[in-house]
Amino acid sequence: MGETAQSSRRPLLIELGGDIDLENAASLGDALCEAIDRTRSGMIVDLSAVPFIDSRGIAMMARVHEHAIKQQCCVTWRGLQPWPARVVTITGLDALLVIEQ
Fold first, then answer.
1. What is the pTM of this model?
2. How far apart are the first and last CA of the chain?
């Protein structure tokens, strides 16, 4: 197989940076759901440069997770920093999401 066929099977990598909060969570969720609609090979969302997530960010992650299930797409969340990891754990979202450190 050529490189194009092999690369199409790799998950789409999306790297996020900065806080995920009231100001940007909705538009970020829209963009991630749109990316899910366009990929057939899964998606990795790298949060290693995200130091803070508020309740809107958590709601966005849950929304993206639900959308991915409907589209039969696997979304892996990677690189959670300590604060976002704690919030994800406290809310119980860690039991639903695929999380990779």
1. 0.88
2. 31
- What b/e string do you get for 83-98 counting C-beta neighbours within 10 Å, with b at 16 or more? ebbebbeebebeeebe
pLDDT in tens, 49-94: 999 999 999 999 999 999 999 999 999 999 999 999 999 999 999 9
Domain total of the chain: 1
Tell me which amino acid residue 79 is: G
Residue 94 belongs to domain spanning: 3-100
Q: Which residue has the tokens 């899964």?
A: 42
Query: What is the spatial order of strands in the sheet that 98-100 belongs to?
Result: 12-17, 43-49, 75-78, 98-100
